[in-house]
Amino acid sequence: MAFWFPGYTVPDFSSPPLRDAPLVRFAPVERAGVAPDGYHATSIFPEYFHVEPGRWELLRESRMDCVVVQRPGGALDVVEFRRLQVGDRVALGRGENGEDGIYVHAEAFVEDEGRGDKFAFRTRLTRETSFSIDYDEFYDLLRYERDHGFIVWVLGPALVFDRDARDAFCALIHRGYVHGLLAGNALAVHDVEAALFGTALGQEIYSKRLAPLGHYHHLDAINRVRALGSLKAAVAAGVITDGIMHAALRRGIPVVLAGSIRDDGPLPEVVADVYAAQDRMRAVVRRATTIVALATQLHAIATGNMAPSYRVLEDGTVRPVFFYTVDMSEFAVQKLANRGSLTARSLLTNVQDFVVTVERGLRRREAGTEKTL
Amino acid sequence: MAFWFPGYTVPDFSSPPLRDAPLVRFAPVERAGVAPDGYHATSIFPEYFHVEPGRWELLRESRMDCVVVQRPGGALDVVEFRRLQVGDRVALGRGENGEDGIYVHAEAFVEDEGRGDKFAFRTRLTRETSFSIDYDEFYDLLRYERDHGFIVWVLGPALVFDRDARDAFCALIHRGYVHGLLAGNALAVHDVEAALFGTALGQEIYSKRLAPLGHYHHLDAINRVRALGSLKAAVAAGVITDGIMHAALRRGIPVVLAGSIRDDGPLPEVVADVYAAQDRMRAVVRRATTIVALATQLHAIATGNMAPSYRVLEDGTVRPVFFYTVDMSEFAVQKLANRGSLTARSLLTNVQDFVVTVERGLRRREAGTEKTL
Amino acid sequence: MAFWFPGYTVPDFSSPPLRDAPLVRFAPVERAGVAPDGYHATSIFPEYFHVEPGRWELLRESRMDCVVVQRPGGALDVVEFRRLQVGDRVALGRGENGEDGIYVHAEAFVEDEGRGDKFAFRTRLTRETSFSIDYDEFYDLLRYERDHGFIVWVLGPALVFDRDARDAFCALIHRGYVHGLLAGNALAVHDVEAALFGTALGQEIYSKRLAPLGHYHHLDAINRVRALGSLKAAVAAGVITDGIMHAALRRGIPVVLAGSIRDDGPLPEVVADVYAAQDRMRAVVRRATTIVALATQLHAIATGNMAPSYRVLEDGTVRPVFFYTVDMSEFAVQKLANRGSLTARSLLTNVQDFVVTVERGLRRREAGTEKTL
Amino acid sequence: MAFWFPGYTVPDFSSPPLRDAPLVRFAPVERAGVAPDGYHATSIFPEYFHVEPGRWELLRESRMDCVVVQRPGGALDVVEFRRLQVGDRVALGRGENGEDGIYVHAEAFVEDEGRGDKFAFRTRLTRETSFSIDYDEFYDLLRYERDHGFIVWVLGPALVFDRDARDAFCALIHRGYVHGLLAGNALAVHDVEAALFGTALGQEIYSKRLAPLGHYHHLDAINRVRALGSLKAAVAAGVITDGIMHAALRRGIPVVLAGSIRDDGPLPEVVADVYAAQDRMRAVVRRATTIVALATQLHAIATGNMAPSYRVLEDGTVRPVFFYTVDMSEFAVQKLANRGSLTARSLLTNVQDFVVTVERGLRRREAGTEKTL
Questions:
Q1: Alpha carbons D338 and C121: distance in angstroms, whole number
Q2: What ipTM is given for this predicted complex?
Q3: What's the rounded Cα separation, in Å, for the pair D251 and D235?
Q4: Model confidence pLDDT, tens digit, residues C49-90
C-alpha cells in the first residue's frame, strides 16, 4: 500500500451561513494571564477567523484550550492563558459556525465511514481489535514522514526497562525516524543507568537479575551525570556510550525532558518549571506532523493538549497531524479521548513489543523484503 | 426522584415504507439444528413481523442471534439454532426496514440526547465517570422492580470472597430484591466454604488470614455437599446455615449454576451441559425486567447474549429490560458492547463496594432516612 | 544461549524425617464421586507416596485438587472427585513432609535466587518488566520441545481477530510447534468466519471495516459448518481452506473445543458437557511438556488446574512442565497464581504481537539469521 | 476492634555485629548537588548511624533515595541530592548491617505472619481480595489519627468528577479527618468548576449531562480565579462557596498544588517548579502519620518516594506511618511497590465508592450506630 493521507476540504465561505457571517471581534487583555470575558477558546480542529470582509484566516500552529491573539500587523497567534500580556487583543465568540466570525472546521479530513447497521458487533476499540493494518499503515507513514515530515516521540520510562526495546528505539533514531523527543527525567535516568550499569532501577535490562545493592545504580547514574554537569557533557566525555539519550544527543535531535514531582535527581537538562517545559515541548510539537506516545499517560495527555489535528505547511497546504498512542489499557486510551484528543489512533499493546516490531517492520520494508521475512 | 422509564414508541405501520412492505416469508428446516438459507437473525431490539396484510407481530421473549420460528397456529418463537427441528418454519430476510416484512425497531425507547458540540470533553465511559446518579436511579429502579418486576442477578465468584459483600447480598435476598440467580460452580462453592469454614479458597473472608492447609477447605466443602447429594439437602440438613445459596434456596428463588471447565467438584446442582444450562438460564431471563451482572465476564456475556432490550408484559405493555454490569475494567464493559449488548449500563467499581453500598442505600430509602444518613 | 532446564532433585528418603515415615493409608470410596474423610488432595508439585517400607512412589500424570487412588496391582492414579467409583481406595493424610507417608516435593526444581537486599526496587512482575529474555528463552524452549516435547496451546478468541496473528499461528502449526490445541467454540467460529468471509464477528480481520450486515457472517459460518456436520467435514469438503482449524485438522493435531454458556451454535465438535471436556483436555495435558495460554482467562485457569509442574518421561526422567500465560492485565496473571498455578511464567502484552513476534523469532533462528534481522 | 499499631523493636546494639561496628564516616560535598563517592542512600526504613562509640542515632524525618548530612552540632539530616551544598558532610557506606556504621532496620514493625503451607491459594493481592477488614481498620485508624496523628490525603482529579464523592470528602474535611492535602492543578480546577458551574470538564457532576459549550466551563473557572488572583481570594470573595478547595482553605489546612505539564491555566496557587513543589510536599509529609492516596499514580508515587515507613514522635516514640493507596488497577499498586514503597496497603476499587463508604462508615462509628446501620 502506498502512503496516502486524506485531502483537506476548504470550507465554502461563499455560501450561507459563512457568507453572511460578521467579522470576529477582539478585546484587550486587562490583567496579565487573564482573558477578557467572552474569549474564544481553540479546539484541536482547523479554525477560521473572519478578519476582513470576505477574508477568513486559518490559525497556524494551533492547539486546544488557548485563546487567539491578533498581533499588530494582523497575525493570529494561539496563546496559552498564562502567556497573555496586558493589551493583547483576544478574539471573542463561542459560536462555531460563523455566528461570531469564527468557523471551527471539525470535518476537514473526514473519511468515508460507510453506512451503519442498526445492529452490529465490535464497534469499540479494545485490546481485541485487530492491529495488523495499523502496523502496516504506520510503516508507510513513518517512511513518508522520515523524509517529508517531522516525527515526535513521547516516551514513558518503561521503554528502557527492556533491552530489545531500548536497542530498537536507538535503531529508529539512527535510521532517521525520530525528529523530536519528549520525555521525563525517569526515561533519561533509566536509560543512563542502563548505559552505565546495564540495569534500570537495579534490575538488569536483559537477564532481569536484581543486581546486589542495585538501587544504588539508579542514584549513582544521576549523581554521576550531575557531577559532569549535563547529559551532553557525559556523552561528550565518553561516559555514556549507548542508549537513547546518547543517540539523540549525538544526532542533535531536540529533546525536552520535563520535570515532575516523581523525579529523583534530577538530571541537569530536566526543566524544573513545568510551564517552561510546556513551552519547550510546544516548540517541538509545532513542527510535528506525526506524534507517537508510548506508555505514558502524563506526557501523552500533555502533548495531546498542545497538538492540533492539522498542520499548515510552508506552501500553505493543510495536512493532518497523526497522533498515535500505544498503551496497555483501554482506560488510558479513553482518558485521552475524554480530554478532547479525539483524533488519536491507539494501539493496545506493550510498548516493548511495539517498538521491536516497528523497528523490524521498517527494516524489512527498507530492505524490500517484507514478503520473505 | 420518582421512578420512571422511557415510554415505548410503536412504529408507524400505516405510512411508507412499512405500509407497503411485503409479508415475511418462511422456509422449513431440513436438517435439525441448521437454519435454511437466508434466515433472519434476531437482534436485541423489538422486531415486528408482517404476518398478515396490515398485521405486524412483535416478537415476545426475544434474544439476539436466534431465528424466528412460526408455530402451527401462528405464534412466533425465538429459537436458538441448536434447537431447530426438521420442519420448523423459519423466517427469512435480512432487511431491517420492512423490505422483507421485518422491522427492527432500534429506537423504540430512545431518550433525548441533546445536541452535541463539535468539541467536547468526556464523551467516553471510564472509571472516572460520575456514578452518583446511577446509584440513585438504581435504588429507585430496584424498589420499583421488587414489587412490579423481576430482578435477575448474575454473580461472579469474587462477590463471596468478602464478608461484608456476602452479607449485603444476603440482605438483598431477604428483603426481596433478588428474583433469580445465575452463577457458576465457583460462586456456590466459595459461598458454601464460607458457611462451613469461614474461608474462601482457604482465606478467611474477613481477616484474610490464610488458614493452615486452607486449600482443603475448598475441596472439603465440595466433598461434603456431594456426600449429602445436593445443596438443597445440605441446607435442609442444617449443614449450610448462612450465605447466598442458603438464602436463595430457603426463599425458593430460581438459581441456575452453569458448569464450566474451570470447575472443581462440581456441586450436584451444577448443570454440566452448557447448552442445557443456557436453556435453564434463558428460562429465568425470559421473566427478567432488570438484570445485574457483578464481576463476571463469562456469565455477563452469556446472559447479555440471551437478554433482549425489552419485555412485553402480560397486558401487552412494552417496557425496557435494564441491564447493568459492574466491573473493574473498561475492557470488560467494551467487550460486552462489542458482542452487541449495546444497551447495558455499566458501573466501573469493585463489586464488593457496589453491593455494600446498594444494600445500605436501599435500607436508607426504605427507612425514609436518605436525607439524614 | 543453548536450551537448558533445571535438574530434578530426588528427595533424600534415607534420612529423617522421611526415613522414619509411616506407610500411606488408604480408605475406600463409599459413595460414587465422594472421597472418604481425611483424603489427601494433590498439589501441582511432585508427590511421593510411601507404599512399601522404603519404597516411595512418585505420582505420574498428576494435577492439583485431585485424590490419589491405588489401583489393584498398586498403580497410583490421580483422580478427580467426580470420577471416584465405589470401592476405589483413596490415599489419606494431609501432612506434606512424610507424617502420613506422603511427601510433597515443592522445591524439586528450585533454581538459585541469589541473595536479597533489604531494600530493592522492581520485585513485582508488571507490564513494565523486561521481556526480552523471556522471548529468547521461549524460542530456545520451543525449538527443543518441537523435537523432544509436546507443546499445548490454549487459545482465547482474540487471536483470530487479527490477520497477522492468525497467519502467524498457522505458520507455527505448519512448522511443527503445535502439538495440541485447547480452545472454545468462539475461537473456532471466528476462525471459520475469517476463512469463509474474511471477517470475525462481522469485522474484516485486516481492514477492520464492518461488513454490511456483518453480524450474519458469524451465524452463517456456524450454520454452514453445522449443515456439513463437522469442522472436519467442512475442511474435507474444501469449504474451509485456511486458518487455524484448517491447519490443525489437516495435520491431525488433537484439538479440544470445550463448550461454554457464551457459545453461539455451537460448532459440531464442541464438547457440550464441561466435565467430559475437562477429561478430553486432560488427556492432551497429560502429554504436555510446555503449555502456552494466550489471552484466555477461562481456558488458562482450567488448564492450569489440570497441569502439574513436572512430567515423568518414559525413561523415568523427571522434567519441569513449562506453563506460559500471555495476557494484557496484571489481574489475569495474579488470578492464575491465586488459584495455585504458582509456576506459570507470564508475559504481559497483546497476544497479537506475541504470536507474530514469536513466529518471526523462530523463523530467524531456524534460518540462523538471528544476528542479521 | 480497638485501634492498635505494632510496637517498635529497638535493635540490639549490645550484641554482635552491631556491638563491634565501626563509626560511620562522612565526606564533604565538593560540588553543589553532587554527593561524594560511596555515599549512603536512605531507604524507607528506620536507619541508625553509629556516630559515637556506643551511640547510634536514628534518622528523623527520613525518606528514601536521599543522603544523610551531618550538620554542625551533629544533627543528621536526610537531604535530597539537589539540595546538597558545598561542604555538607555526607554519610558514606552501603552496608546495611553495621559494616559501615549504619544499620537499616527493615523489620522494625514486623508482625506475625504465621506459617506458610507449601501449597496455597490466594497469596496475591487483587481486586478479588476481601477488603472488609481494611475498611474497619481504616475507620479505627482515622478516628485515632484525627485526634493523635496527622492525616495527609493525596488526591487524583477523578475524586471531584462525582458529586457524592466530592460531598463526602468535604464532610471528611469538616469533621476533622483531613490535616494536609496534596494534589495537582486538575483536582483544584475541576473542583472549582463544580463550585461555579456544577460541572467538571463540562459534564454535570451529578446528572452527567454534557453542558452546551461545556468545555468552556473548565477554562472559565481557571480564568475567573486567575482574575481574582488566587483560590484564597476567590473563596474570600464568596465566588467559590463549596467544594474541597473551599473547605480546606476555610479550615486552614495546608494544601500543596504541584504543577505538571498536563496543566491548563494554571491556578495561581499551583507551584510551577516541581522541585519546589517537592519541598512543599515534603514539609507536609514530614508531619504525616497516615497518608491516603486516591486515584493518582503521579502524586502517589511522588508522595511514596518521600514518605518513610516510620515517624519519631516528639517524646521519642517510634510509630509506623501508614500509607494507603486506592486505585482501580493492580498495575498501579505493583508499580508503587516496584518503586520501593513496600509497606503501602492497597484497596482496589473506585475512589468514588471508597470515599463515600468511608465517610458513611466514620459517621456511623461516631454515632455509635455501626451495629444498626
A1: 5
A2: 0.94
A3: 12
A4: 999 999 999 999 999 999 999 999 999 999 999 999 999 999
Mapping DSSP onto H, E and C, the string for chain B reads: CCCCCCCCCCCCCCCCCHHHCCCCEEEECCECCECCCCECCCCCCCEEEEEECCEEEECCCCCCCCEEEECCCCCEEEECHHHCCCCCEEEECCCCECCCCEEECCCCCCCCCCCCCCCCCCCCCCCCCCCHHHHHHHHHHHHHHHHHCCEEEEECHHHHHCHHHHHHHHHHHHCCCCCEEEEEHHHHHHHHHHHHHCEECCEECCCCCECCCCHHHHHHHHHHHHHHCCHHHHHHCCCCCCCHHHHHHHCCCCEEEECCCCCCCCCCCCECEHHHHHHHHHHHHCCCCEEEEECCHHHHHHHHHHCCCEEECCCCCEEECEEEEEECCHHHHHHHHHCCCCCCEEEECCHHHHHHHHHHHHHHHHCCCCCCC
Work out the angle between the directed axes of helices D351-366 and D132-148 (0-180°, nearest 10): 60
Q: Which residues of B touch D191 (CB under 8 A)?
A: none
Does pTM surpass 0.90? yes
Contact D256/D284 with Cβ under 8 angstroms? yes
Q: Chain centroid to CA C65: how far?
A: 16
Pull the grid cell for residue D13.
546494639
* SS3 letters across B85-153: CCCCEEEECCCCECCCCEEECCCCCCCCCCCCCCCCCCCCCCCCCCCHHHHHHHHHHHHHHHHHCCEEE
Distance set, CA D231 to CA A52, A80, B19, D158, D243 (Å): 40, 20, 64, 20, 12
| Interface touch D118/C127, C-beta < 8 Å | no
Which of B122, B201, B345 to mutate: most D Cβ within 10 Å? B122
Sign of the torsion angle spanned by Cα atoms B198, B203, B207, B213: positive
Per-residue pLDDT tens digits for D87-138 = 999 999 999 999 999 999 998 886 655 556 777 887 788 899 999 999 999 9
The 3-state DSSP class for residue A66 equals coil
Contact A372, A363 (CB under 8 A): no
The conformation of residue C142, written as its DSSP 8-state character, comes to H
Determine, for residues A219 and D331 on separate chains, whether the beta-carbon distance falls below 8 Å. no
Cross-strand partners of D183: D257
Least confident among A301-315, B99-113, C79-93, D346-360:
B99-113
Contacts of B307 (CB under 8 A, 6+ apart): B44, B63, B285, B288, B291, B321, B323, B341
Please answer whether residues D359 and D171 qualify as being in contact, where contact means their C-beta atoms are separated by less than 8 angstroms: yes
Q: How far, CA to CA in Å, does C112 sit from each of A65, B181, C204?
A: 56, 49, 48
Cα distance from A186 to chain B (closest Cα, Å)?
27
Which residues of chain B have a CB within 8 Å of the CB of A123?
Answer: 337-338, 342
Query: What residues of D are in contact with residue C44 (Cβ under 8 Å)?
Result: 119
3-state DSSP call for residue D190? helix
User: Do residues A160 and A191 make contact, with C-beta atoms less than 8 angstroms apart?
Assistant: yes
Query: B26: which 3 cell numbers?
Result: 418462511
Mention every residue, 6+ apart, whose C-beta is less than 8 A from residue B85: B29, B32
- Inter-chain contacts counted by CB atoms under 8 A, chains A and D: 126
Long-range contacts of D312-318 (CB under 8 A, 24+ apart): D312/D58, D312/D60, D312/D61, D317/D8, D318/D8, D318/D46, D318/D58, D318/D108
- Rounded distance, CA A154 to CA B275, Å? 50
Structure letter (DSSP) for residue A22? P
Measured between CA atoms, how close is B175 to chain C, in angstroms? 30
At A335 the pLDDT is: 81
- Coil, strand, or helix at residue D363? helix
CB nearest to B260's CB, from C266, C298, C331: C298
